[in-house]
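name: query_chain
kind: protein
chains: 1
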Amino acid sequence: MENLKKKTFYTIFIIISLFAIFFATFFNVQTYHKEYTGILNNLTRMKNLTMERHEPIEKEMRPINDELHNRKVMDYEIYTFILNANNEIVDQISHSDNAISEEIITKAKNIIASNNTSKVKIGSLYWNKYAYNLENNNSLTIINITKTRNMLLNNLLISLLLICIGEFVIYIISKKITEWITKPVLESFNREKEFVANASHELKTPLAVMMANIDCLEVNKKNEKWINNLKSESDRMSNLITRLLDLSKTEYLQKENFSENNLSLLVEKRALTFESLAYEKNITIETNIEEKLNFLCHKESIDELVSILIDNAISHGKENSKIRVNLTSDKSEIKLEIINKGESIPESECEKIFERFYRNDKSHNRKSGRYGLGLSIAKNIVISHNGNIKAYSKEGYTTFEVKFKINEH
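structure:
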C-alpha cells in the first residue's frame, strides 16, 4: 500500500512539475523570440531607410536626410552611422533621446575595422550588449540591447523563483490528490485485511471443535484410516489459518509499536533455535553476527522474519551442507544474509517467490505442509520496516538478502 501511495504521489508530482516547467519555458522562449524579432526588424528597417536615402559619398560631404535624422524609436537605443566609400563615418544619428556616447562611437569604429563584408550580428540576448547591421560602403546601425538583456534575465530569474515556490505548492497538491485517489484503495485494502483476520478467527473455533472430536474418535480403531485423513487435513487447515492471520498482521505494522532492540541478539537466538531442526538433516548453521547492532523495529515481527528465512534455508538445503547467517552494517544500512547450498532459484522466479501462495515445487510444499505464505509474510515485515528483500542463486548457493536503512529509523 505504501508503495502504491509513493508511486501515485511521484507520478502526479512529476506530471504537474513538467507542466509548470513547460509553461515557464514557453513564456521565456516567446519573450526571447519577440525581442529578437523586434531587434532584427529595427536593424532591417534602418538599413532599408539608409539605402533609400543615401548613396556612397565622400567623407567631406554631409547628406541631408531629414527623415532618417528625425526617425525616433521608443523601445530601443538605436544609432546609425553613415559611411562613405572608404568605410569612414561621415554622419552619426541617434534615434532616441540619448546622445551618442564615446563608447558607442568606439564600438562603431571597432565593428567597421574588424569586418570587411556586410554583416548582421545579434548573438545571444542574454549575454551581448550590442546588436548591429553593417552595410559596407553605406551604413552601420547599432542597437544597445542592455535593457532587453536585463529584462530577459529578470524574466528568467523570476521564472526560476516561481518554479521553486511552485514546487512546494505542487508537493502539497500532489499529497492531497494522492490521498484522495488512494483513499478508496486503502479502504478496500483495510476491509480485505479485516475480512481475512475475521474469517480466520471465525474458522478457528469450529476447526478446534472438529479436531477435538477427531481426537475422541481415535479411540475407536475401526475407522482409523479416515480419522487420520481428517486429522491430517484439519492440521493443515489450522496451519493455513494461522499463516493467514500472520500475513494479515504483517500487512501494515504500526510504527508506534516499534522499539529499540538489539538485532544482533535477536538473530543469534533465532539461529540457535533452529540448530536442532538443522541437525536432523545434517545441516550446520554458522553465524557471522556483528555485535550490538541496535535497530528500531517490531521485535516479534523481526523474530518471525529471521525464523521464516532460516526455516526456508533448512527446508531447501542439501543434507550435509552449511547455512550461513550473516548480519553486518555500515554507516547507512544493516544487512542480513541467509545463505544455503541446495535448490537454486531460477532467475525468472526470484521476484515471484515473494508472492502470496506462490509455490515453485507444489508437491514438495504440500508434503511439508507449506502454503507459499512464508516469504510473502517476510516481505511484508521488511517493507513495514522500510527495507528491501531479494533472493538470488549463484554457483549452487542461494542467498536471501535483507537491507534496512539505519538513518530512516
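note: The chain has two domains: 2-150, 257-405.
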